[in-house]
Specification:
alpha/beta; about 400 residues
């Protein structure tokens, strides 16, 4: 059969680093081993039942079988605005300050194409979610990495960004609670961000994917809570983590009206919005009972406590995450992140993600997803203990 050559654009996309990890895990499993997979970020519990029931009812409405409004249902946008007012005290105009997205990833990948031109500069966290790189590649823009170090609580230091770079930058991506480090942002940091972005005319895109997952009685703050944030950029909120709706592919962007207009224009050319029943169920998630979301958060916190305390008991000096459902763990001396990942998989049958897959500054760490039961997390720790490396 004839094989057609891929475009230069496709060839320019970054390689999917984690595809090789999946292959390794599948290979070990094929050998008959029981692998505890902590390397992925896929919620392991179902969507709360009241949201599922809402979808079932909405699917029976003939109106939802037609094309939905191009830019999404106003009912969902109003629900998002009410959610932000209730949870964060932020006032949003449903018509002009909210855009419905096909999952948070879609918005993150689309935004560089919406606001930047080929050759422009975008500030990106390192380590960070690899699909930020995909958005840069598709927009043909230049990435300048902002190192996230443990010494600075995994927050970027704006003082360390060269003035020339800051003056060229047109967009900055942030993500708190953070994937992969589990760090959270402070109000003071977001205030500094607004001041810095305003001074250099940079659009801030805050990936708030883990906004519903915070620990020790501290609720993660929204970037939009800070004075001037709405004038400076947007925040992307997904239903995937807060409500275990990863497979539903629904999210929204909120904030600066000109950015929202750009997203909507892009999506007008690509989609005809989401299935109406999914939008109705998403509105129910935001406006209905939040008990299930609170239970999900409490579950992750309990898993964190069990896992981190178990690791410390075997002599692994690790930092406890403050949010998200990830733990960011330093590898023992003498190993690279990939070498240690391979060791855990091949000898302990525990899969984790090597830090180098998240950027240069991820080297020396592994990311662990708290996405299995407490029993399995304890079992993973016992297996690691048997390696006798701590």
């Amino acid at each position: 059969m004839k094989s057609f050559e891929q475009s230069r654009l496709l060839k320019s996309l970054p390689k999917q680093f984690f595809a090789s990890l999946v292959q390794k895990v599948n290979s070990v499993r094929a050998e008959g081993h029981d692998v505890i997979n902590l390397g992925q970020g896929n919620p392991d519990h179902p969507t709360p039942q009241h949201i599922v029931e809402s979808l079932k009812l909405a699917a029976d409405h003939p109106e939802n079988h037609k094309y939905p409004p191009f830019q999404g249902k106003i009912e969902l946008k109003r629900a998002a605005a009410n959610f932000y007012l209730r949870e964060y005290g932020v006032h949003l105009d449903p018509e002009n300050e909210i855009a419905i997205l096909f999952g948070g990833k879609a918005g993150l990948v689309e935004l560089p194409q919406c606001l930047l031109n080929p050759g422009d500069t975008m500030l990106v966290p390192d380590p960070g979610y690899p699909d930020y790189w995909s958005g840069a590649a598709l927009a043909k823009v230049h990435m300048e990495m902002m190192p996230l170090t443990e010494e600075n609580d995994f927050l970027p230091s704006f003082d360390n960004i060269p003035k020339e770079t800051a003056n060229k930058a047109k967009m900055m991506i942030l993500n708190y609670p953070n994937n992969p480090t589990g760090a959270v942002a402070t109000e003071e940091f977001f205030q500094q961000t607004v001041k810095y972005a305003s001074a250099h005319d940079i659009c801030v895109v805050h990936d708030f994917a883990y906004g519903g997952i915070g620990f020790d009685g501290k609720k993660p703050i929204s970037f939009l809570q800070v004075k001037g944030a709405k004038e400076t950029g947007v925040e992307i909120y997904t239903f995937s983590k807060t409500y275990n709706m990863a497979g539903w592919r629904v999210a929204f962007a909120a904030g600066n009206a000109s950015v929202i207009e750009a997203i909507n224009l892009m999506q007008d050319h690509m989609y005809v919005s989401l299935f109406g029943a999914v939008q109705d169920a998403a509105a129910e998630a935001l406006l209905g009972s939040q008990k299930a979301a609170e239970t999900i958060n409490a579950m992750y916190e309990k898993r964190r406590d069990v896992f981190i305390s178990s690791l410390r008991e075997i002599g692994w000096d690790v930092r406890s995450p403050q949010g998200s459902f990830f733990a960011w763990l330093k590898v023992p001396k003498g190993y690279t992140s990939e070498e240690f990942t391979d060791l855990l998989l091949e000898k302990a049958y525990v899969a984790v993600a090597p830090g180098i897959g998240f950027g240069e500054y991820g080297e020396g760490y592994v990311r662990v997803g708290l996405l299995t039961s407490e029993e399995r997390l304890r079992e993973a720790t016992l297996r690691i203990k048997e390696l006798d490396i701590f």
